[in-house]
Write a structure and sequence with these properties.
It is a single chain. The chain has 180 residues and is an all-alpha fold. It is built from 9 helices and no strands. Helix 2 runs antiparallel to helix 3 (43-60), helix 3 packs across helix 4 and helix 6 (118-128) crosses helix 9 (159-178). The protein starts with a helix and ends with a helix. Residues 121-173 form the RNA polymerase sigma factor 70 region 4 type domain.
Length: 180
């Protein structure tokens, strides 16, 4: 925790901000990329959203009050940026968010950065069939192994609600995967 406090102080200092931001970037870039990637699906879109996320973090770090962990605050920004990106993209294409999800899953097979097999593809299709909140909860727990406590800070909800959402999501995914 001391390291995080020191990093925050450096990030909020005019003289040390740039150097501290480089350390922050190297420490969290990959984790945030994968968090975003599980939401937006496409590598190129994930790169764009990641860049926007770090710009927002850089510009707003002076507003960070320490009410939550720095990691949770950044994940919240990444989550919001991802959802905003998907909403804008769906609106631009004049389709629903569900149709955008379906198209994103279908495009995974042609994404050179997608290394999954048919099982992975079917799992992604199952996840895409879930409501938005269940998708977020499932991705954070299953792929990133986040603790419910951290997820509660990121998504601003109770641990109990998250456990219930995850349990329901798992049941729906199991049902989806065992069909035909």
């Amino acid at each position: 925790m001391t390291d995080e406090i020191t990093l925050i102080e450096q990030l909020q200092s005019d003289h040390q901000k740039d150097q501290a931001f480089k350390a922050l970037l190297s420490q969290y870039k990959e984790r945030l990329y994968w968090h975003i990637r599980h939401i937006v699906k496409s590598h190129d879109d994930a790169d764009d959203v990641l860049q926007n996320t770090f710009i927002k973090i850089y510009k707003n770090i002076h507003n960070f009050k320490g009410d939550s962990k720095l990691f949770s605050w950044m994940y919240r920004i990444a989550t919001n940026e991802s959802l905003t990106f998907l909403n804008k993209k769906a609106k631009q294409l004049q389709i629903t968010n569900e149709e955008l999800q379906t198209a994103s899953i279908n495009n995974l097979t042609s994404d050179v950065y997608f290394e999954g097999d048919q099982i992975q593809l079917k799992l992604q299709q199952a996840i895409a069939s879930l409501p938005e909140k269940q998708q977020l909860v499932f991705n954070m727990k299953y792929f990133q192994d986040l603790k419910y406590k951290d997820m509660a800070e990121i998504l601003n909800t109770s641990e109990g609600a998250l456990k219930a959402s995850y349990h329901i999501a798992v049941k729906k995914i199991e049902t989806y995967l065992t069909q035909d």
